[in-house]
Amino acid sequence: MDAPLLKERERATFNVTELIHLLNGSEEETKRRKELESWLYNNPVFRQDDRYQISREEVYERGLQKTRELVNLCRRKNIKFDSLDFARLNISTLEELPFFLHVIMFIPTIRGQGTEEQKRKWLPLAEDLKILGTYAQTELGHGTFLRGLETKATYDVSSREFIVNSPTITSMKWWPGGLGKTCNYAVIAAQLYTKGKCYGIHMFIVQLRSLEDHKPLPGVTIGDIGNKYGFHTVDNGFLRLDNVRIPYENMLMRYAKACDYIPPVNPKINYGTMTSIRVDLVKDASVILAAASTIAIRYSAVRHQTEIRPGEEPPVLDYITQQFKLFPQIATAIAFHFAGDYMHRIYDKVQSEIFDGHLSAITELHGISAGLKAFTTDTSIAGVEICRRACGGHGYSNASGFQRFYENWLGSATYEGENTVMYLQAARYLFKCYDNPKEAPETMSYLRYPQNKMEWNVKSADDVSNYATLITAFEQRALSKISSTAKKLKNLTHYGMNRNDAWNAASVDILHSIKAHCHYFIVKNYMQSLNHLKMSSPLRQVMTAVALLYANYGIDEHAGDFLESGFMNGKQINLVRAKILQLLKEIRVNAVAIVDSFDFDDRFLRSALGAYDGNVYNRLFKWAKLSPLNKTEVHSSYKYLRRILQSKL
Ligand SMILES: CCCCC/C=C\C/C=C\C/C=C\C=C\C(=O)SCCNC(=O)CCNC(=O)[C@H](O)C(C)(C)COP(=O)(O)OP(=O)(O)OC[C@H]1O[C@@H](n2cnc3c(N)ncnc32)[C@H](O)[C@@H]1OP(=O)(O)O
Ligand SMILES: Cc1cc2nc3c(=O)[nH]c(=O)nc-3n(C[C@H](O)[C@H](O)[C@H](O)COP(=O)(O)OP(=O)(O)OC[C@H]3O[C@@H](n4cnc5c(N)ncnc54)[C@H](O)[C@@H]3O)c2cc1C
């Protein structure tokens, strides 16, 4: 164990194990998680040490080998794909496996939108992996605008079949995970046509490849879309269908019927699978940022560089600027942990209502999940980059561990709903509630009360240590943004602009409003979650400091908003900044212990910089020696080098 990390751990003022159990939910949950991880990490198939020395094809093949191992493990341990245990195993691999979409979207779409009869037929096949499916919605020409999708499913009454067709090149399905080479089925989003009329997007189960030899079926043109930023293990694919016929029974008809068309009670119920993933992504944002913070904090405690006082080369974690970069990332990871818990609670509640036939809450769920998905993924992507940059040159090495998860996570600003679009969808719901405050859900209850101008009676740094005053500050900031934007929208329509054009004209202000609302929700949920949790006073002291840092840092980061709202003045902003410096100092002694409480196994982080023992330099050198270029002392390409050296300029 590197001496600096040992010393850091000895200085901690709270019990790390207590925080590990608190973040896991309980001691039993911690034990179960570690047991599941051990099953994976002790299996050499899940190795990744040579991850950046193998080709895309080898990466994909490894992905299938891991999938086989994971599936065999689940079968041996009787772990179901829709269980929390599987979700834990899946995130522990920290990379998307080729059959990933089968589990997170293909099966859930059938489960959520299939009739009882269709579920009886398809779910056993899918859960036993007799068939492997993906969720094929996005097309070359459209990903966001679902009503603009071009794939057609035309009902042929005479044969009781649907004819599924890609009429144009832009209608080719493009991006679905596992589509290129892995899956032999897909749930296809297509415009339903029956008796010459279009009834909008519905979901259809289509077989793509033979179950005997995996060859594409007649009318199916299919393949991998090529290399991407990340998701290298996943064969995101393209698919063109040339009048492929499927049985009538292959349209998922829990909520709509094709023959003598019966529409769903709420057409957006077809969008339900996307909502479920957006909900998961809020918690994933916490995991990713916690992992990045762990690497950066441990490395910053070990890395000694330059001098504060002559002759003393301190750990870079002693630099206030380094603390100002990294401690807010720890705080944000914990804030998003509690936001993820909230999202899952709301989702489970709405799901049970939907299964009882009450669809009214799906609009609220969409409004909340779309906003938090956008806010937490945007923030965590930026936070990972702050952590990486805080590690200097070695942060730029693949040995740092950052790239492996960052390259997948970058996509979270786009997949499952491009973030700007998601913000605007959430804003659509927010402004509806602003106009009808009585219909506002609990998360927007502050819209119900008259907007009275408030002054922040903060006179000293201690006043910015109060959860209630901080929550009020974020509430007033959001209200100020929302009410001024609502006024702008009203003026635009008052002077003759139609609602849609007015919405577009005001969309930058709308974006600021929904972001301010999401930020307010995260702060309020974070502080209320801590208030409801039982913990020892030493731990509460640490958790309070971290939560106060999250809120005060947020005020400093968006000081203009708080000043513009009239709720705060320049002097109070300076009090907030003084509070931040005081909190950085208070958190410094526990920084390593807090990231230890995220409890990441070294084999999850796979980082020479973030390993638990802090033995950074030996790991970096060991990793470098793995480089293929070092297989020989003189590389075989020397012949070219020699000519360069011998050539005359
Ligand atoms: C730790 C490591 C983790 C690594 C990563 C982990 C996981 C990775 C996960 C995913 C990656 C892998 C796969 C990715 C898969 C995909 O990306 S699948 C495709 C995703 N695509 C989208 O999200 C498309 C986005 N577009 C839309 O959802 C719709 O087009 C949009 C909502 C933007 C507009 O729909 P439209 O039909 O045009 O509606 P309108 O704008 O006319 O009206 C909106 C009304 O509809 C309500 N509504 C919209 N969506 C929903 C919904 N999902 N649920 C309920 N209600 C919805 C909305 O509230 C409006 O209602 P009102 O009319 O206002 O009452
Ligand atoms: C790694 C990865 C995996 C994926 N896996 C799948 C999958 O398994 N299945 C699947 O079906 N899809 C998948 N997708 C596709 C993904 O869902 C879409 O890319 C995503 O929905 C965004 O749609 P788009 O690409 O059409 O972006 P666009 O909507 O074309 O975005 C381009 C720009 O237009 C802006 N824009 C678009 N509409 C509006 C609007 N109304 N108002 C303001 N601005 C707007 C956006 O903000 C953005 O800046 C995946 C994508 C990635 C990156």
UniProtKB/TrEMBL annotation:
MF (Gene Ontology): acyl-CoA oxidase activity; ATP binding; FAD binding; fatty acid binding; flavin adenine dinucleotide binding
Catalytic residues identified in the record: 416 (proton acceptor)
Domain Acyl-CoA oxidase C-alpha1: 271-430
Domain called Acyl-CoA oxidase C-terminal: residue spans: 468-645
Subcellular location: Peroxisome
Gene3D superfamilies: Acyl-CoA dehydrogenase/oxidase, N-terminal domain, Butyryl-CoA Dehydrogenase, subunit A, domain 2, Butyryl-CoA Dehydrogenase, subunit A, domain 3
Identification of the protein by name: Acyl-coenzyme A oxidase
Organism of this sequence: Trichoplax adhaerens (Trichoplax reptans)
